[in-house]
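User: Predict structure, ligand manganese (II) ion.
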Amino acid sequence: MRYVIDTPAVPSLPVAGRDERFPVRRVFCIGRNYAEHAREMGATVDASAPMFFCKPADAVVTDGADVAYPQATSDLHHEVEMVVALKAGGRDLDASQASAAIFGYGVGLDLTRRDLQAIAKAKSHPWDVAKAFDHSAPVSTLRPASEVSPNADTTISLHVNGTSRQHARLGEMVHSVVDIVVTLSTLFELKPGDLIFTGTPAGVAALQRGDRFHAELEGIATLDGRIV
Ligand code: MN
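Assistant: Predicted complex:
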């Protein structure tokens, strides 16, 4: 096939212990999946109705690359999150199908232009400009699910310039990974290559140019980077 402009590159993530990379198709995110974070944002969790939004696939920042401070904001926030990568998909998956669809796990930042999100919330507008901007999704190397299995006691944490900002156990998640995949599959036909950001615990705060961040999903993935 020949195209009328240059073909866009396929965004991809490194995979631990493999030469091959994981191609990213879409990026789904769940909001308000830790009650303490929902509270700090002045919201409540509706456990019966999880809330989703998306980022473009090429929002991923990989291989520890510097993250450019984005345009159009003066309040860039970090949200550390476990990232789930899918190797299979489908509609209306059951729990065992959802579990079998998982390729692996990583850790990432759901970077947020909090000032633009506040305006969007006040006007009942969509969150795209707050969430789906360029370079808004730094993600670590993935670890295959065949090697690691996060559980309720696995911790997720974020340090900025060596100071702890966010720390939680995955057991604090309102919706489990399998529940998220099952619910997403009732809304979208999931596909291999899809990534899912699984929500952030409390402690979200601003990042500045020059900040160095260290995100960790205990025993599974680390992500080190810098805002420039
Ligand atoms: Mn988030």
